[in-house]
Amino acid sequence: MWEQDSSTHAPQMSFRAAWSLVLRKGGLGIRGIHSPGSTAHGKEKMSPYTNYHAQRSYPMPDEPFCAELNAEQQALKEKEKGSWTQLSQAEKVALYRLQFHQSFAEMNRRSNEWKTIMGCVFFFFGFTGLMIWWQRVFVFPKKPITLTDEWKAQQLQRILDMKGNPVQGLASRWDYERKEWKK
């Protein structure tokens, strides 16, 4: 588990061994790792975008969009403290983008997400149709012989020959002398 660094010749523990040692000693523990207000490795913020949540109903987020600034952005923030008439339009937009992710116009802009959703819906309709067709062709058995037109005609003829239900049934509507249905 110990690795030798060629430049310092000091023993260094591998990450996995150090992590298991921290967990065994109870340094962070499962609660410390998964507490809702912190990151996985301690109390420091995740960079550069943390806890940023802005929407139309809540336009002013608690934290700026970009939390950690580079040298150019820090210089721009210092210039912001002076007169705004000295700032160019591009610098004002850059300052806005440091604080907010989107403008109201960008938040209110329609998205094309409905196309994706409808595409997925139609894809699954088509896939379901193919599955039903495949089951009817390859899985379900053939139709029973009792559902064929010839069988139904023979069955009707048998009922008429037996004169079944002659008062109100099929036999009452059949003319036995002319061999046709009564009009």
Helix-strand layout with pairing:
Layout: E1 2-4, E2 11-13, H1 15-25, H2 29-33, H3 71-80, H4 89-99, H5 104-108, H6 113-139, H7 149-161, E3 174-175, E4 180-181
Antiparallel strand pairs: 1-2, 3-4
Helix pairs in contact: 3-4
Core attributes:
183 residues; mainly alpha; two-stranded antiparallel ribbon; 7 helices; 45% helix; 5% strand; disordered N terminus; transmembrane; Cyt_c_oxidase_su4_sf; transmembrane helix; Cyt_c_oxidase_su4; mitochondrion
Can you describe this structure?
The protein has 183 residues and is mostly helical. The chain is 45% helix and 5% strand. The protein has helices at 15-25, 29-33, 71-80, 89-99, 104-108, 113-139, 149-161, and strands spanning 2-4, 11-13, 174-175, 180-181. A two-stranded antiparallel ribbon has the order 1-2. Strands 3-4 form a two-stranded antiparallel ribbon. Strand 1 (2-4) and strand 2 (11-13) form a beta hairpin. Helix 3 crosses helix 4 (89-99). The longest helix is centred in the last third of the chain and has 27 residues, at 113-139. The model is unreliable at 1-13 and 25-46 (pLDDT under 50).
Shape category? rod-shaped
* Gyration radius from CA atoms, angstroms: 40 Å
- The SSE order reads EEHHHHHHHEE
Question: How many individual β-strands?
Answer: 4
Q: Which strand order do you get reading across the main beta sheet? A: 1-2
Tell me, rounded to a whole number, the average pLDDT: 77
Parts with pLDDT < 50 across at least 5 consecutive residues: 1-13, 25-46
Secondary-structure class: mainly alpha
